[in-house]
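Researcher: Good morning. I'm working through a list of sequences from a screen, and I'd like to move beyond sequence-only analysis. For each chain I'm collecting a predicted structure so we can compare shapes side by side. This is the next one on the list. No need for commentary yet; just the structure.
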Amino acid sequence: MNLIETTVGELVAQRPGRARVFEHFGIDYCCGGKKLLAAACREKGIDLLAIENAINAADQEVVAESTNWTTAPISELANHIEQTHHAYLKTELPRLEAKLKKIASVHADAHPEMVRVFEIFTEFKAELESHMGKEEMILFPLCRRLESAMAPVASHCGSVQNPIRVMIAEHDHAGNALEQMRALTHDYTAPADACNTFRATMHDLEKLEQDMHQHVHKENNILFPRAIEAERVVGV
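Model: Good morning. Structure tokens for this chain:
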């Protein structure tokens, strides 16, 4: 395979362990998954040989997530996203909101940027909770029906591409929020005078971002294209 002429989303879809390489180099493989690797590297000023070597090394490692989601049943992938990534967010978002509220209150004078981080996170949390509800109640059930359909599937949404288009736009907005929080916290780096809660929260925010990258990648680059193809096969 010509790595540099393959999209970054496809590269991760084929072998999930490659996600760690893109995280290391700062390449967006979820919302930006449609870009060819060559273009993504050019934008970031990354040496192509260096990243090809890193990808090849990652391919030799055993990855924790062994399921090939490009061929697993669509319903299984939708269940996985709900049970893994949605479940994680439903637990983590309220916990992080409470911790960020405390940090913004206690450290506002020394670190006023944390007030803005808290504001961004509060909006991010509210939008994600609404987003997950729409996926679980509307889009994912439609994807599951399309997988087993023998004829066009009736839906008040019309084509499955309509809710998918909305979900992708919301993914982009969530990605922008994460980028803002990363910038404000200097790559989630706790300041020298940070308390233990402050330090732990920076670690948890970075973990949240990493999980979101995996989450959005599985939807944008695998689930959604497969649902669109399933609809194409049976007709709208």
